[in-house]
Amino acid sequence: MLTDTERLARASLSRIVEPGDTDVGVLLEQHGPQETLARMLSGPAGEGYRARARGTDPAADLGHAHALGARLVCPGEPEWPTQLDDLGTARPVGLWVRGTASLRLLALRSVAVVGARACTAYGNQVAAGLAAELADAAWVVVSGGAYGIDAAAHRGALAATGVTIGVLACGVDQYYPSGHSALLGRIAEQGLLISELPLGAHPTRSRFLQRNRVIAALTRGTVVVEAARRSGALSTARRARDLNRLVMGVPGPVTSELSTGVHALLRAGGSLVTDAAEVVELIGAIGTDLAAEPAGPMLPRDAVVGEARRVLEAVPPGGTGAPVERLVRRAGLPSDIVLQRLYELGSLGLVERHGGNWRQR
Amino acid sequence: MLTDTERLARASLSRIVEPGDTDVGVLLEQHGPQETLARMLSGPAGEGYRARARGTDPAADLGHAHALGARLVCPGEPEWPTQLDDLGTARPVGLWVRGTASLRLLALRSVAVVGARACTAYGNQVAAGLAAELADAAWVVVSGGAYGIDAAAHRGALAATGVTIGVLACGVDQYYPSGHSALLGRIAEQGLLISELPLGAHPTRSRFLQRNRVIAALTRGTVVVEAARRSGALSTARRARDLNRLVMGVPGPVTSELSTGVHALLRAGGSLVTDAAEVVELIGAIGTDLAAEPAGPMLPRDAVVGEARRVLEAVPPGGTGAPVERLVRRAGLPSDIVLQRLYELGSLGLVERHGGNWRQR
Asked: Domain residues for A316?
């Protein structure tokens, strides 16, 4: 288990270090968080770090996060998604997580849907439909919370009563872009907002690009829906490819500028997908290293306790299952909690989604 | 060289045998056309053949063809496109060719563009644009003369002052569909109409399907522009794949029924292409077995005689070249003849198209 001192050190590092700093990653691998922090601040190249460290108060940061319903999830902790370890020395020092579900369990069955900010009506329709179908199949849709395809993907998942994760390039208390405050708030309630940046942090160009590596590493694969030739969504796809995740693209009219990036991706070896069934066929087939679709439950039913146990007992054993609203009544828990626990139980192989309903496996 | 008797026997066979009859193909390989004809008509299974043979007059057929500006091109003749030999025992007994250009030379640098009859405005636009760009790069566009994508491809090539080949499932004197009489007439003038069926023959479902194997075998690759899941264009693509030709598809909106067949093709290993440059990159790279893009001319300049020589002498030696109209004036020949000779000289590596102009290589 992580000690309080280690957590405080990682909270400090998340304020001092820019995402993707591999020099710090090397130190962390060799010396752990406290020693890394000490060396950074005292070292010859430490002036920049010391300037950023002034006035930081990691205990206060953790307190503010707690008040917001957020927490810092660190490598080695049970909630840490171990697939992020594939990032090596570029692994985040920690992730600020807002929402009540388990990041690790949700991320086990997750897929990224990303694309152009300035998307077309076609892209919007395709991304929302794809995300809704993925949610219907109990997959967690991960995206970046941006305008355009990202928003369509989050909205599609939410509309299908699915769970979605927004990976931000700013603090999880920041609603960026501001036009998405309602959407991001709803993601935090029905899913999770996560970021390696501390509360209050603002996005920068570099942070957007580094954020993409987290989206790529967290998920089994990345689907690009619309992207011009130099779109940021393609950087997520490249990261996914480099991490041996699946790279998928939805084609579009060759007469549209927003198809060019996707088609270039497909010509370079990405997999062409036209609907969620084709996505699931690909991402369901891999992932024994992450979490295979379990033939049976991954842990005994008796090991499930607390809220998750109440939800599990509310789910019908097979048959056509029951809709979320009925499970909410039976379990006597808020609907967002029930939904998150259902997705967690799903990733453990204990329940499954069947159309709009849930049933035990 | 083919004897007159052999030509007459093949003309008879083209009237008696349905396209793709491999039993007859086996006999032809073993015994040649005269002996094959004799065995077919006298054999135990000959009743059907004899019924069809009654009243046939191969000499009259050849005469009528000549009057129409058509001829029968047979295996082993200089004008025979030897890539059709890849069809083995399903090789046509001969091809009726209408138009003055050399089928063999035009087919050396040819690519098929096929697709749905009931295409969308998108497909129409894409097929016409692709064919025009291919013509601009001095590639011969081959298609089936049908409504929809086929017509758009032929029209695009013609509009770009290119040469195009229509492969018909009926006699080359038949304008089928009748709404295409003007288009097919223009193809015969500016390019070639070809068919393995004799004059007067009407299309049938089986003839359409067998026609597709000729399109596939004649060309270096087949591009499918729009196709529903059970489209005939996909049968051309399958034939092309079986013949180790390139199979290409232009993607479209996943929300369109007419994209489903193309996307299925691409998911099964077809190459995604979005413009003519990408098509040329693929088909230009292969084809050493058919006819490689020659580094230098394939035959000495002095060997070019007759009309071709007059056209060659009219073409500027390099520079930005000259448009067809100027070459027509210089050569003193009809424009369709000049165009066909230019394409032939192009396939021999003696001239090349540069934008809308032609120049010597």
From this structure: 301-360
